[in-house]
Amino acid sequence: MPQVIEKFKKVWEVFQETRQISRVLHNESIFKFLQQFSDHCMKEKNRGGFDQYLKDYRAIGKIKIEKDWHQDSSSGEGRLLYSNSLFSKGCLRVKLDSRDRALIVFLPGYRMDAADVLEREDHFQNISGIAQSLQMGLACWDWPLQGPRLEKGLYLKLKSVYSAEREYSRILPNLGTSLWREFVAELQFALSHLRRYVGLLDVHVIGWSMGGCFSYLAPLLEPSITKVVSAGSCAAIKDLLEEGKTRLHGYFFYPLNSLHYFDLENIVEKVILQKHPLLIIHGDRDAGCLDRTRRLVLEKVNRKGLHLEVLKNHGHVFSASMKSRIKCFLENPVEVGQRLENKHEKVEVGFLKG
Fold this sequence. Notes:
- There is one protein chain.
- This protein is of the alpha/beta class and 354 residues long.
- It has a ten-stranded mixed β-sheet with strand order 1-2-3-5-4-6-7-8-9-10, sandwiched between helices.
- It has helices spanning 2-20, 28-43, 49-56, 114-118, 128-133, 161-171, 179-198, 210-215, 218-221, 237-243, 264-273, 291-300, 320-331; strands at 63-71, 78-84, 87-95, 102-107, 136-140, 202-208, 228-231, 278-283, 306-311, 347-350.
- The protein is built from 13 helices and ten strands.
- The longest helix has 20 residues, at 179-198.
- The radius of gyration is 21 Å and the shape is globular.
- Residues 11-15 and 333-354 have low confidence and may be disordered.
- Strand 1 and strand 2 form a beta hairpin.
């Protein structure tokens, strides 16, 4: 009996720690050291930036097409099936009508999947209505640890993305890579083949939460991307260290040794320099989006083409208001001094073009 009680106690402690992780206090002295060391890394940031990083730290997963673009008989979607030697098989999915004038590529959040975006009409990530109203097609796929891919990864039948991330992150740094780098490789693969599928149509990328973290990178991986939206993701790694908030993001968020090459403000600057209109949008109460980072982006980046909006009384929520603002951005980017009416709730807007 004592052994059973002790086992139950340990399970309860793990549960409690998991529950408290977003509230736990940080050790200021240790984070101060990490922040100072990050400053040292940033001062050495002369190794060629994002593009050079991808060359110096190559993904190790081998991605190849298993079945090229075809029409799925049951859904009518265009689909491409592929394999990745590090993860289970994936599927690019596209809903596109002959009348559509552009394509929206949606990058889903951490615990979501493509079915939430394309099939479940009542799911908050389903933006089929926005796509249809804009006469745009909609594309999505499961990230490597989402949907049916989760249970067929490194360890079979895992139900938790947290557990799967942890197991991959134990070993990948020993091989010179990271979950971030392998996700970026899949993103680049997907964008290049989606471009091949839609031909000359405009392609816009929208990412929510985890997807928002990666949407910043989309036009740097596929230069033909037109507009980019990062929703619910605005945090530089250096600022997370400064504020002791590195716990707020999953393992996917952290590239190996990246501060010698880039941080978020450098990515945003490069996107704007390459003339891709970018909307960064998040709630004022979103714990994972930092005021410090937003100020840094405004300080470092030429504002022409950059649109940054902070929604009042908003947490980490992909709300109707946020979707409405994104729709406006895709329809007609905000110009200097123009204020778009929002019928859902009060919005504080940063107009940054011009």
